[in-house]
Design goal:
The complex is a heterodimer of chains A (348) and B (290). Chain A has 348 residues and is mainly α. Chain A is 75% helix and 2% strand. In chain A, the strands form 2 sheets. Chain A has a two-stranded antiparallel sheet. In chain A, strands 2-3 form a two-stranded antiparallel sheet. In chain A, strand 2 and strand 3 form a beta hairpin. The longest helix of chain A has 27 residues. The radius of gyration of chain A is 21 Å and the shape is globular. Chain B is an all-alpha fold. Chain B is 73% helix and 2% strand. In chain B, strands 1-2 form a two-stranded antiparallel sheet. In chain B, a hairpin with a 2-residue loop joins strand 1 and strand 2. The chains are: A mainly alpha (348), B mainly alpha (290).
Chain lengths: 348, 290
Amino acid sequence: MRTGHFKESYAELVTLSDSAVTWAWVAVLLAVLIALPLFVGNYGLSLAAGAMIAVIGAVGLNLLVGTTGLISIGQSGFLAIGAYTNALLLADHGWPIWASIPAAGVLSALISLLVGIPSLRLKGLYLAITTLAFAFIVNHVILYAEEITHGPNGVFLPKITALGFDLSRDRPFYYFALAITIAVVLVALNLSRTRIGRAWMAIRDHDIAARVMGIDLVRYKLLAFMISSFLVGIAGALMSLHIRFVNIDVFGLILSIEALAMIILGGLGSIAGAILGALFLSFLPEAIRIAFATFGDPSSTTYTAYVYEIRGIAYGVVIVAFLRFKPDGLIGFWRDIRRYWSNWPLAY
Amino acid sequence: MDFFLLLLATGLVSGAAYGMIAMGFALIYKATGVVNFAQGELVMLTAYIAFSIAASLNLSFFPLVAVTVPIAMVLGLVLERIFIRPMLGEPIFAIVMVTIGLAVIIRGVTIMIWGPDPFDFPAGLSTNVVFIGDIPFYPAQLYALGALAVLVAAAWFFLHRSRMGIAMRAVAANEKAAMLMGIGVARVHALAWSLSSAIAAVAGILFAANFKLGPDLWFQGLKSFPAVILGGLDSVIGAAIGGLVIGVIENMAQGYLGQGLREIAGFVVIVLVLMIRPYGLFGEREIERV
């Protein structure tokens, strides 16, 4: 009698999912996402689109930090590059959107080589600090290159249409963001089962051993930087479309921390985890706002006075609590529940 | 020439603040192998605590430091106990992320307690200009340089002459071997946190006295990374020297190359140093084998 989930061939090991139930749930999820505009208003759609963008960014970062094991605190730098590239190409140079978004990704990927190349000699914390330095340098270059970037004034985005839809309205933008998110998630899922993804995991687990096994560290580390930054750059481009006004103040350090919090909270190295983490943290501020509002007037005025601080504290507490009590993240919770469900009434 | 000397002098003063903060980083890194991303926040929090003490007790500089430093040490111990100790044995990345989380929490809490507006905080020091040669100094600036010198001397004696300091170096060299030799590794970690928080208090008070006490003080912690990288993450005294060098480089970049470079000169130095000499000027070179 078969009493478990067996993989009998290599092909089975690398399929996206061999379970019809999983595919059915994915279909349900897609149907809900597509039908979402019927249930929620414009505010909800705007929140949902923001969450989609967070998912893209978290999936991108997860390829670098979770899959390849290269810690980066420079996420905000690549988001800024993506957002500014997209905004400037649209506003100042009149590019069409189908060219400016890929351009934002490509530029981020190229610039990531600047951090990627030093990273070949660096490990762990040194790399983390380099990426941090990189984010600061990017912010200052953007602030002082006024001829190109408008410096402290920021960039207003013009009205953008794609295929005849006005992307400044919530519903078309939601569908736009959803389509890109699905594409990005599929790319990431497939990457992790190719040669590249497996090489990355080998590098994460032990880079010197991976080198001995014949993995070209230079090539795969740089590739990790480039692909991850490409996705983050695209997230930045979408972010600029979403907020419609790009200013350097948006891309502070807290954004990098938020991104790291997303992948830690979701479960490092897991794409489903990155998605869960991004969704959870995107709706956390909203949940906090509602929680403060339910306690009436004094607490909601405290909230409006200290929005950023309260949000920051919440991120901090979430990071610390998850690392301490549930290092596997939300995806670990899910696995525990699933194991419990299938093994009940036995403990293991 | 005068301009050069002025830049050099002010560079050394801001470098002294970087140096002190960087010493805190290096001390924790040396003992625990963790970069404490909350060091800048510790500097800010202890400076605010000193501000509240000064406001309620009206103390002059030395008594203020004498009261604040023990409080800071207890604070360091408590933070280590709550946030870091339970993570013992976890991967370094996880512990570093905990310090990042701690940093954001401290930042939020500080602003919620003391508000977002900056304060003037003379820390009981006079503001009459003192001339050394032709160069004008505020007393607070001279105190900052003096404090760095005292801390470097104290750190050297502690690490090379005291029992606990030698234990700390042993833990840094090889944690397991140190444990087998009967050194309480957890105690050494706690001590490193409390000492580095004491240094943070001195740095915070002097920084606030030199500039302003505001919620962006935590940023000095990040700005001290170049110093600690230049000196080598595991060299406490190297970090102090790195601080002075970075302070001077930043000021020179500002004075001779252009506005705005001050903010990023240090970070450019980081990238260069890491590419050429990844373990810093005084850091220990690690060799890895499979």
